[in-house]
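Dear colleague,

Following up on yesterday's call, I've attached the two folding results inline so they're easy to grep. Please treat them as preliminary; we haven't cross-checked anything against experimental data yet. The first protein's sequence and structure tokens come first.
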Amino acid sequence: IDRLLQFLQNASVPCALFTLGVTVALRPFTQVPWKVPPLILIKLVAHPVLALILMTAFGPFDPDWVKTVVLMAALRRRSTCSCWRANTTPGWSPRPARC
């Protein structure tokens, strides 16, 4: 059973990357709305910088934890996207567990 679990463990990342690639490749892409670039800039730059400032302001944390928080701040979160869309799109409601 250990060998089976090791095979599954080794296959999980390539399968996830393949699924992500297929999902992105099949998504129709016509044009970028004007409001997307500022949101990307905020998410990839401002949010991690704010996380770094807050981590350094609220105490001495292990440097590995600070790096993890900054990296997590730059990652895309489906739950935050769903909550934003639910609050801005009339008639759209996400699954309750997401917000």
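Below is the second protein, in the same order (sequence, then structure):
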Amino acid sequence: ALRNRSGRDQGHLGQSVTASRHPSPVAVRAVYQVHAAMPKVPILGMGGIRTGKDALEFFAAGASAVSIGTAIFNDPSAPWRIQNELVAELESRGIERLRDVIGIAHKEQG
């Protein structure tokens, strides 16, 4: 296991420290804040994406794309599974196009 300077367990190689929280609330908030400040700048959301619902949170916060990382270690087919789950999430909400979701959390706020 990896340990930080204080000796606390930080997980194993290939495992994000925040992997137990998906998606990372810090990462989603960062995407949200950057999108609020610069809505026309493309943003790559990353940080604990394991499901289509996780990806949807990043898109709603303002990400124009997402990156799948640690999930691939346990499931090499994760990108395809997550894409299929994302499509199902959109369909369950009656949303036809992904671009209609990008930044929607900002529209709901104000």
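For the second protein, one point worth flagging: The longest helix spans residues 78-92.

Best wishes,
A.L.
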